[in-house]
Design goal:
The complex is a heterodimer. Chain A is about 30% helix and about 5% strand. Chain A is mainly alpha-helical. Chain A has two domains: about 200 residues, no CATH class; about 210 residues, no CATH class. In chain A, the strands form five sheets. A three-stranded antiparallel β-sheet of chain A has the order 5-4-7. In chain A, helix 2 crosses helix 10 and helix 11 packs across helix 15. The N and C termini of chain A lie far apart (about 55 Å). By secondary structure, chain B is mainly α. The longest helix of chain B has 28 residues. The chains are: A mainly alpha, B mainly alpha. Chains A and B meet through loops of A and helix 6, helix 13, helix 14 and helix 15 of B.
């Protein structure tokens, strides 16, 4: 009798689990197989492909303080920094991408930021890995919301300093920021690296088109409670489109800003050393600059004569978009649902580039899944930081191309493999004040199978 | 009238026993004592911030004393960072602007460019001498500059030296730049030979065999600090800077090898393996550079350490990994080096 009862219980439990498995939707996780990203735009000339290859090498160059450390030939690192190379963080699924993961995705690499606490440091001079940086977590930069006097900060505070590195000036003793104290005061927000695939096409898309497509959806957006506006440049009033709040005007500005903020390398766009600590300033500024000489010669390739920042921008300009793999019934169904419930109102699927200086890059139809406008995303996602015209709870519609291979989602990487991944990211769109509430409600009203179709579709991008 | 002729005139005027002004040859005993107290031997090397702060205090105590200022400037030249050097220049430019008619501050602002914009320093000194041919410090500074390797001009130096000697008999003219710190003995200081031999030389040195990770790190740090004394100054040619940079990178490979050996010696195999893995990653980076001058040294160092571990499988795996990564950016020279190493090291097994 007892045995029968146990058997019945087991069968019921098994049936429940089976049903639940069939009904509940789950993020399939980062797509395996080839990277389908990281190469040059299709149709480039041989010379342009050569430029791409050269520029990619610069993008992957590792920086030390003065270039005197073997394998870290670039110079200018610090005084504060989050990483020592663009490619360290823009890694998954290929150079140019986003945060890597030690067990998922294509590159299978731990968060590089953990190693920077000990890399090239003297015995006993290691720095502390901040609590929000984990081996299997997203690459992050930290911003403080307020200054100690209560005024808005919003700026990036480097995770590490060069103090204690073998190549730092002997007099440099600059300490890391007090992240534990700032976290306790709820004064820290995070940003993760954005993938750079295909951004040359975005850079080369006219404002008229962005505005036109945005206006085309005005009625549908209004019906779904979606507003939105473009972030704009304070000088010429033109649309800015790069970065989590669309705060950067161009790929070149984006490169210069990131080089300075993330690696501490002053350059012709951002020539001022951050931190203002004389004892840690090791190089004349700008540390990265155009070259008058290539060795003893006054000529060289474009990359040899250009600043690193220009080469970074060239790499991104010529970097192909990620290729989607949408080809199954569930993925096609998911795409249709994605559009029908209104995800596409902000994650605009298609744009077209305009006249290009590069071969075969004029009028290229591409699929970024973004309107490049900023939207109120509600209290849950609000980070309290304003950038340009983007307010404390406003974010650019994150381009979804390549989402299939991304490990972490949302501006601070809060959604990832540990907590539901892309599904969690969708649900986080909903909170008081979010323009996405109606669309998320529609998503939740779908059947589990339909929701799964959408997740499958997103993982095919 | 050229500055050389003016300098000659200065000598004549001085010889006639009619100095144009107090010649400013040496610091007064009081100032010298204050300087000595502020910077006892080794103070600048031990703690630059503290020593330079003491010298700033001397400067504030004797605000119009040229030698108090010059000693501070020399301390910054010898131990300051780019940030300190910039600040010093700003300070003296501002002082000069605040005292437009005073040669002392004009001189100090010009002198602040020594080794940083030396040609501008020369012009500043020449301007002063055109107005005050017997301003001994400017003659002294010009003689220092024209006695240097980078800005050497024997004829000018002789005239300046003689003019200065006439004004300041017995006073010395410093060598520019100041002597560089020696390369660390621990890391060999043999310079880069391009083939890895320099980094392997001295491996039998007992100090090197016994060195701890901390000592090796300090040696590496000292050599990187020495590099900064070269990088930031126009006393050194671009070729010299490039060579020194390569030497410093070569020393890294030696330092890391010694550190792995140290960890193995004290049976801290986890640390040894972690550092070796990190070195291998750096080698992979070099593999992508077709012009890398250090590839051979790096490959020999990394693979030699794998071979030293007496684990043939690990050595083979390392070769396999390197060949795979080399396959992404093929380079016949690098591939040949791997072949040579494999023949040597596997045979050793």
């Amino acid at each position: 009798m007892r045995t029968t009862r146990v058997r019945l219980l087991f069968v019921l439990l098994f049936s429940f689990m089976l049903a639940r498995g069939a009904l509940a939707q789950v993020d399939p996780g980062p797509r395996g197989g080839p990277a389908n990203a990281g190469g040059p735009l299709a149709g480039l000339s041989a010379a342009e492909q050569g430029l791409f290859n050269d520029a990619r090498d610069v993008f992957a160059e590792v920086d030390s303080v003065s270039g005197g450390i073997a394998g870290e030939d670039g110079s200018g690192l610090g005084p504060t920094f989050n990483a020592n190379s663009c490619a360290a963080c823009h890694a998954q699924p290929a150079v140019g991408g986003a945060s890597p993961h030690p067990r998922l995705g294509q590159v299978l690499r731990p968060n590089p930021q953990v190693a920077f606490a000990t890399l090239d440091r003297l015995t006993g001079r290691n720095q502390v890995v901040p609590s929000f940086i984990r081996v299997d977590g997203p690459v992050r930069e930290a911003r403080f919301i307020r200054n100690p006097d209560g005024s808005p900060d919003g700026g990036v505070h480097g995770l590490y300093t060069i103090a204690g590195r073998v190549d730092a000036p002997l007099s440099c003793t600059l300490a890391q920021p007090d992240f534990a104290g700032q976290l306790a005061a709820n004064n820290v927000i995070f940003r993760i690296p954005t993938p750079t695939f295909g951004l040359g096409l975005v850079d080369n898309t006219s404002e008229e088109q962005l505005i036109g497509r945005f206006n085309n959806t005005a009625t549908a957006r209004a019906a779904a409670g979606i507003g939105g506006h473009f972030n704009t440049n304070g000088n010429d009033g033109s649309i800015t489109r790069f970065g989590w709040k669309a705060q950067n005007k161009s790929l070149l500005i984006f490169s210069g800003e990131a080089y300075n903020v993330e690696q501490g390398v002053t350059n012709e766009l951002f020539p001022t050393e951050r931190g203002g600590v004389e004892s840690c300033e090791a190089n004349p500024t700008p540390e990265d600059h155009s070259h008058l000489f290539n060795g003893a010669s006054t000529t060289g390739t474009l990359t040899q004569m250009s600043s690193d920042a220009v080469s970074f921008a060239n790499f991104m300009r010529l970097l192909a978009p990620p290729a989607d793999t949408t080809n199954t019934l569930t993925e096609f169904n998911g795409r249709a649902l994605f559009n029908s419930i209104g995800c596409n109102l902000c994650h605009t699927p298609t744009l077209v580039s305009e006249e290009s200086i590069f071969t075969n890059q004029t009028n290229v139809v591409y699929h970024p899944y973004s309107d490049f406008a900023v939207h109120h995303m509600g209290t849950r996602l609000a980070d309290g930081v304003s950038q340009g015209n983007a307010g404390p709870d406003e974010f650019r519609s994150a381009p979804l191309w390549g989402a299939g291979q991304r490990i972490f989602f949302l501006h601070d990487g809060r959604a990832g493999p540990a907590n539901g991944g892309i599904l969690r990211a969708i649900l986080e769109h909903s909170s008081p004040g979010s323009e996405a509430n109606t669309v998320v409600n529609r998503f939740q009203a779908l059947s589990p199978g339909q929701r799964q179709d959408i997740l499958n579709f997103l993982r095919s991008l | 009238m050229g500055w050389t002729m003016l300098a000659t005139l200065a000598v004549l005027v001085s010889a006639a026993g009619a100095p144009l002004r107090q010649p400013l040859c040496e610091a007064s005993a009081e100032v010298r004592r204050a300087i000595d107290e502020a910077t006892p031997p080794g103070a600048l090397e031990a703690d630059f911030e503290r020593a330079s702060s003491s010298l700033r205090a001397v400067r504030e105590r004797f605000p119009q004393d040229l030698f108090a200022h010059a000693r501070y400037q020399d301390a910054v030249f010898d131990g300051g960072t780019e940030g300190h050097l910039k600040r010093m220049l700003r300070e003296y430019q501002q002082l000069s602007a605040e005292h437009p008619q005073e040669t002392l501050y004009e001189y100090l602002a010009g002198r602040a460019r020594l080794g940083r914009g030396t040609k501008k320093a020369v012009r500043a000194m020449e301007r002063i001498l055109e107005r005050e041919p017997a301003f001994a410090p400017a003659l002294r500074t010009l003689a220092e500059i024209h006695g240097s390797a980078a800005f050497g001009d024997a004829a000018k130096e002789r005239v300046e030296r003689e003019a200065f000697a006439a004004l300041c008999p017995g006073s010395q003219i410093a060598r520019r730049p100041s002597p560089l710190p020696e390369r660390s003995r621990l890391l060999g200081g043999a310079g880069f030979a391009g083939d890895g031999r320099s980094a392997e030389r001295g491996a039998s040195n007992a100090d090197q065999r016994e060195a701890t990770a901390e000592e090796i790190g300090r040696a590496l740090q000292a050599d990187q600090a020495r590099l900064m004394r070269i990088r930031l100054f126009d006393w050194y040619s671009e070729e010299t800077k490039a060579r020194e940079l390569l030497d410093a990178q070569a020393e890294c490979w030696k330092a890391w090898r010694m550190t792995v050996e140290h960890h193995r010696r004290v049976s801290d195999l986890a640390k040894a393996d972690a550092l070796l893995a990190e070195m291998e990653q750096r080698l992979v980076t070099l593999q992508r550079d077709p012009r890398s001058a250090l590839y051979r040294l790096a490959a020999r160092t990394v693979l030699g350490l794998y071979a030293d571990a007496k684990d043939p499988q690990r050595l083979r795996d390392a070769f396999d990994r390197l060949r795979r990564s080399l396959g992404q950016t093929p380079n016949p020279a690098h591939a040949a080096e791997l072949d040579r190493l494999q023949a040597t090291l596997v045979a050793r097994e």
